[in-house]
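ok trying again, last paste got cut off:
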Amino acid sequence: MSLSSSAPSLAIFCKVIDNYGDIGICWRLARQLCHEHALAVTLWVDDLVSFRRICPEVDPVETQQAIQGVTVRHWQDQDGQFDARDIPDVVIEFFGCELPPDYQRAMAARTPRPVWLNYEGLTAEDWVEGCHRLPSMHPRLRLTKHFYFPGFNARTGGLLYEAGLDARRRAFQQDGAAVTDFLARFGVTAAEAAGRKVSLFCYLDAPVTALFDTWRGGATPTLCLVPEGVASAQVSAFLGTAPVTGASASQGSLTVRVLPFLPQADYDLLLWACDVNFVRGEDSWVRAQWAGRPFVWHIYPQDENLHHKKLRAFLALYARGAPALTAYMLGWNGAQPLDDHRAAWHALDATLPDIAAQADAWRQTVLAQGDLVTQLLDFVRDLRFAQENSV
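nice, full thing came through this time. structure:
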């Protein structure tokens, strides 16, 4: 059953809060819906400057543009005027961003009314299983919104995972020349590439200086690759100069190199090329899980440390049998003291081969539930069928 009598259409509304995570997820979602499922996708984004950093094709001054088959529109305010003919078959609001009031009115005036989903944040907490797919009636209009939660089991909505991703990853990681050529684009020498390679993407409160001190004084040659703008103060202190693209310095066993902020496809390659990945937020966290490498997650901070509960819920699933990973990740996030960073890192370092071996089993377990986009569209079809057959 098709979503409409003509080409299926879908709109995604995204307000950028976490700089790159929000738009990162929405951009992957939009492209997969367009490229793999032939939907006519419009992506409304309020921050085109942040969007451009992960997709250089974006022109931040254009109000509407076509990029990789997706119509991108600048969401400038809540005051737009809309007609029922402007409304697509499916409307997705990301992380509960409020749709413009007149857009909602036009949704209610459309025949048939669109399927309306609130795409929620990813968490391993148990409560989402009872909220996934729940309806919420609009207080004034004849509209019903349903909540859609990504997740790690069959009682949630799965994770974003595009077709052929793992085949591309394996081919890249098994091609030493491809890895070397990719890293050489950023000035990485053959000697640096032969040592331990780490990518670093974190928030401002990460204990980066203590980590650098640990690597600098360690026995393992370590190359740390940091996108420009990440941990700027700590990276600048290590470099002794501004942390701009191309800057690098070596002290002891540690070399730090500053990379340009990478488009999504290249960021995936970076995760695949490194031995350990430090990631943050949601988008890079999910991509690290597909990379088949050990990773340390820096979770987006929330009031009253609610993010620590979310972190512990994930670690209870992912880090079973890996207490050193649990201890280090909790310390990295300030969820418990990390008084001796060197000892905590060395404990984690000793278990990295085992963690890497478990990564494939974790990926297969999650993927057995199916990818998010396929499950989301199945849910949309169920809702549309119910709507068409309601009395």
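cool. The radius of gyration is 22 Å. The mean pLDDT is 95.
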